[in-house]
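Human: Here is a favour to ask of a fellow structure person. Comparing notes only helps if you start from a blank page. I am asking you to supply a protein in sequence and structure-token form. Write it directly below this note and I will take it from there.

Assistant:
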Amino acid sequence: EKEAMATDSADLQAFMPKALELQKKYPDAQSILVSEESNNQHRADGSNLSRYRSISYIAKEEALWAAEVSVSFDPNRERVKVLHARCLHPDGSVHNLQPEQIKISKGTSGSVYFDQYQELSFTIPEVAVGSIIDYCYETEEYNPFDPNLFQGRNYFQWSDPVGESILRVSVPSGKELHYVAYNCPPELGKPEKVNAVDSIIYTWKMADLAPVIPEPSMPPYRDV
């Protein structure tokens, strides 16, 4: 939907000062995750809807690969929709992804292996050092394996400095959400809990997170 994807980028300008502030604090960083927000909704009928938005600052040429975005999905159970993908240059110019630039690759198959998953991919146009890239997409699991099963994970901290990371999880009223917060300070691991119409919303917010520095024989990021 061309009009929806070419959304106004006025809100992007506000992220540039934060990006430059973090760049001064972490001058060796190749890129900076200025802001990310993940919203997950477990519906009463068992289907699931998630929306993810990522806003990153490209500090060095080594991070230009971040313009390449891919999302895997099972076409028999899931739908993926790109809401927007764009690049903001320091001069204020904005370059938007066009719908025809989105590609869908088929699943792979072999003599003993068949993968039903497909991959949606795109390249955000005109990304350069000093620019901000912003993309947002939705994944709807309309045909879940088990309507009572809802699961996911969020890392918050990563190899890049993180300005802000927000996770929201919504479950129907009357259902209990079980969660575990690994290696997390107690004051951050417990979510804010709000009662909404027919649902309960859990929110975790973390800000100004230093990058995880890789070490020899380090465990996987998900364990750190």
